[in-house]
Design brief:
Helix Hairpins; five-stranded antiparallel sheet; Mito_inner_membrane_organizer
C-alpha cells in the first residue's frame, strides 16, 4: 500500500469519525487481515502488510494530538510534522506555524549548501609624501599624510547544479588614480575526476574611462575630476 495513503480511507471511516467508530473499524479490519487467518505464503504476506497499515492508521487517529497534526498537515507532511509535537504545541495553528518555520529553515540550509560565496577588498595607500617628501627638511606637521591610492573589490559565487557541475559568476571593481573599471564573469564548471575538472568562462562589460579630452569630459561625474596642470583653465560640466 501507498505509505502516504489517507489513514481515514485505510480504516474505511469518514474524517468526522468518532472514537467508537475508529475502534469498531480497527477491530473489524485487524481480524480480517490478521496473518494467522491466512495459509498461502503470498496471502499471508499481503495480509500482514495490510494489518500493519491498519494498526498504524488506528495508532495515529486514536491519539488526539497525532490526529490533530494529521488533519492539519495531511498525509505527506505528517511524518515530519509529528516530530514537532511538543508540550507547548497545543493547537493546529501553533503546529502549522512551527512546521512552516522548520520548512523554511531546511530550505535555507539546502540553499546555502548549494551556493558558495567568496570576496575580497583591497585598499592601497600611499605614504611617500610623508616618509620621503621632495623636501626632506619639511616639518612633519606640514607633510601630506597617507592617502588612498587604489581600491579593488571582488566577489565570486558558485551555484551547484549537481554533484559534479556548478555555475560560476564573479565581479571585480578596480579604481586607481582617478580611473576605474568593472569586469563581470560567467562560467561553467564540470568535475571530470578526483583531480581534474573543466572550467569554461566568459567575461564582459569591461570598462576603463579614457583620459579626459576637451573641456567637459562626461566621465568626471562618475570618477572624479582629473588632475589639471597648473595654469590650465578647467571648467567642470554643470549639466
Amino acid at each position: 500500500m501507498d505509505p502516504h495513503a489517507d489513514l481515514y480511507s485505510v480504516l474505511g471511516v469518514a474524517e468526522e469519525a468518532s472514537e467508537d467508530e475508529l475502534k469498531r473499524a480497527f477491530r473489524r479490519l485487524s481480524l480480517a487481515y490478521h496473518p494467522d487467518r491466512w495459509q498461502a505464503p503470498q496471502d499471508k504476506r499481503e495480509a500482514g502488510e495490510r494489518f500493519l497499515h491498519v494498526a498504524r492508521a488506528y495508532g495515529v487517529l486514536s491519539d488526539e494530538r497525532k490526529r490533530m497534526a494529521y488533519d492539519e498537515l495531511g498525509p505527506r507532511d505528517f511524518e515530519q510534522g509529528q516530530q514537532l509535537l511538543t508540550a507547548e504545541v497545543d493547537s493546529a495553528a501553533k503546529l502549522r506555524a512551527r512546521f512552516e518555520r522548520e520548512k523554511r529553515r531546511v530550505a535555507e540550509q539546502a540553499y546555502h549548501g548549494k551556493l558558495r560565496m567568496s570576496g575580497s577588498l583591497v585598499v592601497g595607500a600611499s605614504a611617500s609624501d610623508l616618509l620621503a617628501p621632495a623636501d626632506p627638511d619639511l616639518p612633519l606637521g606640514e607633510r601630506l599624510w597617507p592617502h588612498i591610492s587604489s581600491v579593488s573589490m571582488s566577489e565570486d559565487m558558485a551555484l551547484a547544479l549537481s554533484q559534479r557541475t556548478a555555475l560560476t559568476c564573479g565581479c571585480q571593481l578596480l579604481t586607481k588614480g582617478g580611473l576605474g573599471g568593472c569586469t563581470l564573469r560567467l562560467g561553467f564548471k564540470r568535475q571530470l575526476g578526483h583531480h581534474a575538472f573543466l572550467h569554461a568562462s566568459a567575461s564582459g562589460l569591461n570598462g576603463s574611462p579614457a583620459p579626459p579630452t576637451g573641456r567637459n569630459p562626461h566621465w568626471i561625474r562618475h570618477y572624479g575630476a582629473p588632475k589639471v596642470p597648473e595654469g590650465t583653465a578647467y571648467t567642470p560640466d554643470r549639466r
